[in-house]
Write a structure and sequence with these properties.
single chain, alpha/beta, 4-stranded parallel sheet, 13% strand, 4 iron, 4 sulfur cluster binding, menaquinone biosynthesis
Length: 356
């Protein structure tokens, strides 16, 4: 038996793969062998042939950001003519539309606005919680929390505790990109949150009883070792806290960014390989989410055979990836058709994977 086959057999049997073994898979494993092994692991964690999805909305309350990440096409400077901070009345209108469409949650994120302070975030959460108590507020990435900690000179845990008291129900995995600091420095995301700072926010959230997601945006010119480092860091934190609900990898979209034409971006082949290896690496994660948003519906459907047990959100609104020139959209009927067409049973869920 060759070493790739031996590693895949170990993963299928439930053994934990080392960083060295994961690197071998990235360099040598055939695509279909990875898919077969990842599917076996997926069914060990989620035995039923069910694929979940959620109806929610991605609301960006501001596009103003103090940082200038090279991979981002969304941010604006405060003085730009199209810079905005949404009034609370506009937020309420968007949430009302979401509830009317059957949505159960809101993903609320923004740029890191240099002038907004903790009382603004607390007020926004209370405003939404009081008017829509049935809606799950999945809000604020690690860089937003880290900025508030720095500007107020407060411990990260205290910032999160105050946001939780105001209505924060869970924290998304945004701002992770690649959790390897040399890559973060090259793409200018280290300033907003180092690897250690991103992990600290999620560790403190878990300690306070909040669940979070782990994400990875890849294809920004990083090597495979950086991706392995990312997987090992989130696996280690999950060992310590068990607070992550899911792992969500997706590919960098280059249009309108400072990295456009500067790196070899990832297509469907690299996406499916990385998704499968993520499923094999993260033996302590129950859920791995496939990405139709960045790769399109066909690759999204294929992700169900490469380790994904969830297809994410209908996403009634999405602005960040759209700013990079990607406009994939799904309605509920199409989502359920894609899942059934792949041989699975669709099932709606809530933000924390509770069934509806």
């Amino acid at each position: 038996m060759g070493r790739v086959a031996s590693i895949l057999e170990r993963a299928e049997s439930g053994a934990r793969l080392s960083g060295e073994e994961l690197l071998v898979l990235f360099h040598e494993a055939p695509l279909h062998d990875l898919g077969q092994a990842a599917s076996a692991v997926r069914f060990r964690h989620n035995p039923e042939p069910v694929v979940t999805y959620i109806i929610d909305r991605n609301i960006n309350y501001t596009n103003v950001c103090v940082y200038r990440c090279k991979f981002c096409a969304f941010y604006r400077k405060p003085a730009d003519p199209d810079a905005y901070v949404l009034p609370f009345s506009e937020l309420a209108k968007k949430v009302e539309e979401t509830v009317a469409a059957g949505g159960t949650g809101i993903l609320l994120q923004g740029g890191v606005h240099p002038s907004l302070r903790l009382d603004f975030y607390e007020g926004m959460l209370r405003f939404l919680r009081d008017r829509f108590p049935q809606v799950h507020l999945h809000a604020f990435s690690a860089p937003e929390v880290a900025f508030l900690s720095r500007v107020h000179k407060l411990p990260v845990r205290e910032v999160i505790a105050r946001l939780k008291d105001a209505g924060l129900a869970s924290i998304p995995g945004g701002g992770a990109e690649i959790l390897e600091d040399e890559t973060r420095k090259r793409i200018w995301s280290h300033a907003k949150a180092s690897t250690a700072e991103w992990l600290e926010v999620h560790r403190e959230a878990h300690a306070l009883g909040l669940r979070t997601t782990a994400t990875m945006m890849f294809g920004v010119g990083e090597d495979y070792q950086a991706r392995v480092e990312h997987l090992l860091r989130v696996r280690e934190l999950q060992d310590q806290t068990g607070g992550f609900t899911a792992f969500i990898p997706w590919t960098f979209q280059e249009e309108n960014t400072a990295l456009e034409g500067q790196v070899d971006t990832s297509g469907g082949y690299d996406y499916l390989r990385t998704l499968a290896i993520s499923r094999l690496a993260l033996d302590n994660f129950q859920h791995v989410q496939g990405s139709w948003l960045t790769q399109g519906t066909k690759i999204g459907q294929l992700s169900l055979f490469f380790g994904a047990d969830d297809l994410g959100s209908i996403m009634l609104e999405e602005n960040v990836v759209a700013a990079a020139g990607v406009y994939n959209r799904l309605d509920q009927q199409t989502m359920e058709f894609l899942i059934r067409d792949a041989g699975f049973t669709p099932k709606r869920r809530r933000t924390l994977y509770e069934p509806i």
